Write the structure tokens for this entry.
Amino acid sequence: MTPPLGARPGRAVRVVFFGSGAFAVPALETLIRRDDVELVGVVTPPDRSAGRSGALIAVPVAAAARTAGLPLLQVDRVRSSEAVDVIRRLAPDLGVLADFGQLIPQAILDLPRFGILNVHPSLLPRHRGASPIPATILAADALAGVSIMQMDAGLDTGPILAAVDWPLNGTEDTPELESRAAHEAADLLDHVVTSVLAGHGSGTPQAPLGITMTRTLNREAGRLDPRLPAAELERRVRAFRPWPGTFVEIPQLRLGIREAAVGQAQPGDVPGVVVADGAGIALSTVDGRLSLTVVQPAGRWPMSGAAFRRGHPAVVGAAVVPVVVSVDGAE
């Protein structure tokens, strides 16, 4: 019987890491700590200008790579022939991807003999795609999790090597859940890399049932629609924190919603109208009230709903600008 293909004793495995956001940084740090891994390249998007000063800002993975003195390859399109050629010359044995935001072309998938591991913050095949953590909160899932798969040409479709889950209490927001997922993923990756380098990297095909897809979020996704239940709107406030944020528009003002709570409907409430809620304010919805506990007027600092009402008493009774629905029913 032929033994499984594994790493050659005494030789560090050449690894290329693909990543961008903060979720990926603990995974990169796990690889840095391993004596059997040589990080020959870290692939990230380029630094981008931000703010009025136009200063260049690095994505978190690029900043971590620079701090660690790792070779950094910053590319707009990893599918470009130039990027493929550079990665080919790195001669990777293994690739690891986390929070990268681009599909990897087959020409790169075929390079590492151990394949490319994809670290994904959901329990696949649930919540494939670009925004699995907000989707987990929006769906009111009882469990969150992380999956590590062998990448193939599809979008989060490869065979699962390992997964871990934990219960949710229904109060988490995206930063809290992302932080937990990042550290769970880093611990899981350590075990998976050991297994893969020992020759155990085939994985289990994903189930054909229970597949859900997520989408890239834009700013308009954060507009709160009072035709929805209050509990769903409250989940949106938590799921879309910090990006894209949530807001309502009242005449001549966009009001960011930073924190909210579900309340009971009162006689005379009309969905879409801002009402008095104790000393504060609430948005009447189709089935109750969404108490707007912390708000942020455009161009101002966050403040309590009560403080905003004191400065803008006419907000009580104002109707929010309705969500525009296209002919095909999409917002």
The longest strand covers residues 253-263.
